[in-house]
Amino acid sequence: MPYASVYPLLTARAVARPFTYEVPDEVGKGAVVQVRFGSARRRGVVAAVGEAPPDGVRVAAVEKVLGDVPPALVDLALWLADYYGSTPARALELVAPHRPARRKEQTSAAGRHALGGEGRPGALSGPQGSALERIVAGLDAGKAAHFLLYGATGSGKTEVYLRACEETLARGRGAIVLVPEIALTPQALGRFRARFGDGVAVLHSGLTDAERRDERDRIAAGDARLVVGARSAVFAPLADLGLICVDEEHDASYKQESDPRYDARTVAAKRAALEGAVAVYGSATPRPESWARLERLELGGRIAGPLPPVRVIDLRREGGYPLSAPLLEELERLDRGGGKAILLLNRRGVAPALHCRACGVTRRCGNCDVALVLHGDGALRCHHCGQAEAAPRTCPECGSPDLARLGAGTQRLERELERVFPGLERIRLDADAVAKPELLADALRRFEQVDRAVLLGTQMVAKGHHFAGVALAAVVDADNGLAMPDFRAEERTLQLLTQLAGRSGRDAPGRVLIQTFQPDARPIALAARHDVEQFVAGELERRRELGYPPFRHLVRVLVAGPEPDAPMQALAELRDRLDGAEVLGPAPLLRLRGRYRAQLVAKTESPRRVAGPAGRLLAAASPAMRKAGLTAVVDVDPQSL
Ligand SMILES: [Zn+2]
Ligand SMILES: [Zn+2]
Q1: CA 585 to centroid of ligand 2, rounded, Å
Q2: pLDDT digits (tens, 9 = 90+) for 540-597
Q3: Which residues keep their CB under 5 angstroms from ion ligand 2?
Q4: Of 66, 165, 183, 568, whose CB neighbour count within 10 A is largest?
Q5: 348: buried, middle or exposed (CB in 10 Å: 19+, 13-18, 0-12)?
Q6: What DSSP string describes 481-539?
Q7: Which ligand has the nearest atom to the CA of 362?
Q8: How far is the CA of 64 from the centre of ligand 2 (A)?
């Protein structure tokens, strides 16, 4: 029997290497096997076949062959483990997840989760045709290619994905289409199924284990050659992959925020490179990283008409926040004549802070360094740890009854709307209102069906949903995100404003209102002119000067613990032993869930050269750190700082 090196799927960092086993003749790289490891049975993945064991080592045989994944996915997982500083086992678990028992239901998850889709339009626009031609040339060149598909909201990116998939399938190869959120998969799925029928599978973390197993089986058997899903679909077990489309490529949800902290966009690029596939990244507001690095396929403006005019409301001159006079006027028009509006306020609750006018104290969370948010049920809640207390009638510090509710959240906005326009239906979309995915789907369906309503909510309302008849899109507080201490704060603001504006006037003339205290701020002024390109050009210039991505990579090390000084001390020691990178910090962060936190940020050309040593130093220090209750995270290419 031949020998194979097998990675047992154990999460412990101590066994992050392959072990030699005897395997049956037909077993190859990518086989998923059951092995005896120590005294336990484990699943394992074959990484290579043929290597003889070191002299004198007794080799056991694998107990069972459980299945297999395409060999290219083994290379992808091992690369991922190395790049993001995770373990091979954790990365292999992504491409070869546990297979639960078979279930009895017959219809596929893709069939049950899909919304309706449109038919195939007759002809492509000129720019769509040229973009498709370029993608097809990439497919036929037989090696990896990477494109940025750039065009305004409504410029027809989805039709380009659909045709590119058609061309890929016609060549006998498979395709993956990624969307940033599970909530967006039913709509995307509907579109692709309308064109490709049952040959479409769906993969995301919201499926049940049994559904996921069935979908993976359909893909592995070749019954579904097209996979639609959220970030984990990038690991779909398609053999002979030809195309990966990453829709709304600017969206930070493509980054996984737990170990392995991979970015599905980076993984898509690597998978395309490994398998000679074409990767297409689409957005109306691309990341500066993609703009600088990728060949651009430009779709230009909207097919159906011009982008809607944007009116900026200067809140320093207009009273009435959260509903200024111009916004009220627009809503009145809707109330009288019909039509739909989308209102974005990226903050939950009634008021983001309760503040005593007499002594100046704001009610804060006992575990976290943040203000408690007043909610509609009369509770003050912490948005980080969930701790809640009843809102006091008088100030607990000085006894004064003069408590001010500072600012506005979605619940207050909803109440104001109810007060002024009692006859206008309101549909709220935020984490409180749609705690379950079904509620979200219900709310979106409701908004699609009515002909007069206001959809209001957090950034959820701005994400990629297509609704007919939206006459008004308004940003209630454009300044909200700008205050974030993150170098991407301006980029995120521009993306959010542009995406929201893109919901308006897709099929009829629409209007867009942006309320702000900083009308001259760069992302607000440029979003109002739909000038994404000037924004990206300026952003790239600034990032070049500061050495931010795409010019250098960032590696973030975060340490948290129960004592105030220990995280800073641990990071200061780490910093002294990291060389070859420009290191910022350590800097303290907000305390969260009772834990004090601090971070280091390294700027480097080669993230592995920082993340590798940082990971090893932290692993070496881990007994002492554990004793002190400290936890550490190394995050390569972090999406928030
Ligand atoms: Zn007070
Ligand atoms: Zn808290």
Answers
A1: 25
A2: 999 999 999 999 999 999 999 999 999 999 999 999 988 778 899 899 999 999 999 9
A3: 365, 367-368, 382, 384-385, 387
A4: 165
A5: buried
A6: GGGSSSTTHHHHHHHHHHHHHTTSSSSS--EEEEEES-TTSHHHHHHHTT-HHHHHHHH
A7: 1
A8: 48
